[in-house]
């Protein structure tokens, strides 16, 4: 379970955020503590009565600038708790964190693909003194581990991946709430995927049915560049009105993206991350026999998406690979000249005269077809087939990737063995 603790100055804002979801039937109030009402009925009345429950605490507040607590508790999507269990879980968490005697209201949210709860409370006691938040992060982590054991929940060790997981799926226009869908996906990929150009960024988002576009204009004589987002269908056609990046967050606008891309580029140049998919892509290209649909499917089975950019005549002028396993994005030229747009134009439009790749069977003159499905996922099992099959490619060393160096050494070793046995 992952806990997120936020503090603010607006009690009304925290209550309204949750009540709006209640009004849309994507959230419900399941419990409360020291609240004036049972929290059912008209939404406006609920907010008014809830604010009355906190009033004495906030009026007594002496110096705390942000007295409002807004906590979310997020079990794994694999866990299932009833409303009653969620209410007990929230009560246990608040008690162990020192807020057990405070007024609080518990909402269950069901609009993101995972059921989770939000708790609105105050960190100021009835005498106006702030409740200690010393070592809060460590105490919260310890509390989450204890509650996971008590309620039989999945242990979560990677907070970033756990929170991102439910949002890393395609946006769906039919489900509505477009802005929230786009915002959830953007926030999940922000620090999860690594990319160096806007082209790589937009190609990665297209895998989640989101289009990102740069818009340029002039305001009061000053030129500007902005970013807008829209939901698309599976063919990449926009099906929603564009949403300005400013409605989602500064980090998803032009300046914010540039800052992120510069950071990623520096780390790439410093060797902190490198492509790991060259061999997999090469295998898929040769296994596809020039069939574009087959190439896409072969890569997808290996957790790799490929996005082509084409002109009006259908000629490919750009290609981007999205490695979902390593959460990295590369333009083809960054992998090497063997994976540039021109190579894919030749692969699809100038196929080899032979319909299939072949290798000589060791037990005689019988020839065996090497079909796409015969290609195993690991490159080190295919050295001999690669040497015979690769006509337009040569593996070149890019940097000092240990896996790639070992791969080249194994090929050379097999060559020497072949010559020593008189095999041509």
Q: Tell the overall outline.
A: elongated
Q: What level of helicity do the residues show?
A: 25-40%
Computed structural class: alpha+beta
The strand order across the widest sheet is 1-3-5-4-2
Integer-rounded radius of gyration: 28 Å
Order of helices and strands: EHEHEHEEHHHHEEEHHHEEEHHEEHH
CATH architecture of the largest domain: 2-Layer Sandwich
CATH class (first level) name of the largest domain: Alpha Beta
CATH fold call of the largest domain: BirA Bifunctional Protein, domain 2
Percentage beta strand: 15-25%
Low-confidence stretches: 353-399
Count of structural domains: 3
Overall strand count: 13
* Main beta sheet strand tally, sense and closure: 5 strands, antiparallel
**How many helices does DSSP assign?**
14
The span between the termini is 60 Å
- The overall pLDDT, averaged over residues, is 80
Features:
5-stranded antiparallel sheet, alpha+beta, BirA Bifunctional Protein, domain 2, 14 helices, 3 domains, single chain, elongated, 424 residues, 13 strands
